[in-house]
Amino acid sequence: MPLLHVEVWTWSFTSISRCVAIATGLAACLFAPSIAWSQKPVLLIHPTMVMFEGNVRSATINVINRGDGDGVFEINWIDYAMTPEGGLLKTDGLADWSIQPYVRYSPRRISLGPGETQIVKIAIRRQNDLAEGEYYSHFRVLTLNPNEAELGDDSETQTSVQVSARTATAIPIIWRNSDEEPAAGIESVEFNADTGQLEVAVRRKGKVSVRGFLHVLGETEDGVETELADPTHFVIYANLDGRTAKIALKPNITTFAGTQIMYTSDIDRSLPNSTIASYRIDN
Fold first, then answer.
1. In Å, how far from its chain's centre is CA 84?
2. pLDDT for the residue 255
3. Which of 72, 153, 169, 173 could form a disulfide with 144 if both were Cys (CB 3.0 to 4.6 A apart)?
4. How far apart, in whole angstroms, are the C-alpha atoms of residue 41 and residue 113?
5. H or E segment at 64?
6. In this predicted model, what pLDDT tens digit does every residue of 204-231 receive, in sequence order?
7. Is it true that the peptide bond before 231 is cis, omega within 30 degrees of 0?
8. Is there a single domain that holds both residue 93 and residue 73?
9. Residues 37, 137: one domain?
């Protein structure tokens, strides 16, 4: 029976993983009675984002092996563009906004035992004639040594499976080469009766990205302010002018008169100077 080669890619905002399975038949993948996994490294990066602003030109990132096996990791960079839906799409070559030409980092390859941590230092090279704006890329750590699982031979089916996995975790590194503060405006708010969601169109202003939380606030019959939805984390990268957030409302919301939508830089909307934009539905 010919070998079957299966590849699956999955990704999110901060992590990418690849799983490759090679088997003598699809049934070996689907109906394997038992698989004994070897010890494996588990990658963790802290912090989950780095922002260079003002005179800050250096930072450190902790690469941690939380698994029960040794790990070898390679560090590199990748450029993404944000889509209007909020996803991340890899660019072809260096993006116009890439931080890669202006950054130094060390080390570039590390070995970590279970529970060990490596500090990676990154720094921005000084650029006197660089255009004002925001530059960003994703700092990516790739696990080089694959995990392996082997299924023993069965005398009747004579099937075997070997599974190898490579994982990569990426975090955004942002350099605001600008004195501008993040700014945005809420252009429109509509209720989609088919999905039961509130659709909030937000327009980014200026040259830098904007990050924060959208709050939907209403009033009870007694005039007490209440939240009509859980706070929604919402980001617009600098490659986009705007995006529309789709917010799931709490049950039994039937009227929106007097509802206020707030976009704040912190999940705690009561903090001073945290409000980026606001919008009120009057009818």
1. 15
2. 74
3. 72
4. 8
5. strand 58-65
6. 999 999 999 999 999 877 778 889 999 9
7. no
8. yes
9. yes
Share above pLDDT 70 across residues of the chain, in percent, rounded to a whole number: 79
Q: Which segments within 66-209 are labelled E, that is strand? A: 71-78, 80-82, 88-90, 103-106, 109-112, 117-124, 133-143, 147-150, 161-177, 183-192, 197-205
The tally of domains found in the chain comes to 2
- Same domain membership, residue 195 and residue 85: no
- My answer on whether 95 and 41 are in the same domain is yes
Q: Which pTM value belongs to this model?
A: 0.78
Give pLDDT, residue 167: 83
Distance CA 124, CA 26 (A): 49
One domain, residues 155 and 73: yes
Q: Residue 41, exposed/middle/buried by CB under 10 A (0-12, 13-18, 19+)?
A: buried
Alpha-carbon gap, residue 109 to 178, rounded angstroms:
32
Given a cut of 50, the residues of the chain with pLDDT beneath it are: 1-36, 147-155, 162
